[in-house]
Specification:
This protein has 363 residues and is an alpha+beta fold. It has a domain at 150-352: outer membrane lipoprotein receptor (LolB), chain A. The chain has helices at residues 5-12, 14-38, 42-52, 69-83, 108-116, 121-135, 258-269, and strands spanning 154-162, 165-176, 179-188, 199-208, 211-219, 227-232, 237-240, 246-248, 254-255, 279-285, 292-301, 306-311, 319-326, 332-340, 348-352.
Amino acid sequence: MQKRGPALHRRFGRGTVVLAASLASHGVLLGLVSNDRLRQPIGQRFTQQAWGSLAHTRFRARSPADAPASRLSSAAAVLARVEHAPLGLSPTEHQVPAVSHPPPQAQPEQAVAAASTPVPLAAAAAATTAASAAAGSPAGFPHTPLPTRIPDDFDQRLQVRRGLQVGQGRWAWSVQAGRYRTSLQVQWSDHPPSAAPSLNWSSQGGLDEHGLAPERFLTQPARGGARAVNFQRDTNRVSYSGPTGQAPLLAGAQDRLSWMAQLLALVQAHPNGQGLPAELPLWVAGPQGDGAHWWFEVRWHPATECWQFSRRPEQRYEVQVQAWVKSGPDVRLVRLDMGPQGGRQPAWQLSDLAQPEACGALP
């Protein structure tokens, strides 16, 4: 048999075989080094690669003693300029931007706990009023009271709707010896006449420069216990029979029924569509401890001589109000739409039975 070795040398040459063997040996060595590096942390790998491997080469770092004297003097001059440079400036006179550190923030657990802690509405109103008083700003009310003219006694019949329920209501108003008393009762059509009213509100109090000055509001539902709002004018506080806590008594404050008569008093004092501001503030207290500012947008309709008062709540589930009041000597409430915005409960609609179209075709 003929040997293949001499033929291989003759075909490729001895140099080719040596080159192939050298490449194979280098590949084995590189594989061993790579496996050893992968078993070490990244930072350690970088340190040994950048500094450890170069320390044994001819490019190793030299000590300051090995440097020429000219370079040492030059380096000393640079260090001197750095040490005496102005604060905030580099030796090349470039401005170094200041690093601002944000104020420390609360931990997530603390933020969640603070956000989930309930705050009574009465306490929040007291804090807001105290802050406003400290700042010297009014708490949402004009310094000068608007003129009012208290309406005469009346007993108004109303048609009441709430969703699919239809019934009749009675709004009574009377004034005697400088004190007022008003009540609103609603009875649904599918209830017997002898049944207790489905809605039974009452308000009583005195009169002052702002108009009505309520002292007690009472709601007596057909089911459940009665609830009251007490306006303690000797201590300037508003207290509630149901919820705990109190609120400050602001000038011109009203309850859930007296504010309707307050609008009549304002309209009767401004019969010609002049004198009322474009925005009218009233602070209204409810039996749930929900005292809040009601800001009304005021519009005058000259064709029908009616005032329109619209309250747009700032938050969901607050009371939304649309009221139309007929101006003139016989001032009267023509229509009232009232209910929570965005809530599941239907809104109340009260319409005057005697003159339902006194303010024109209403939506």
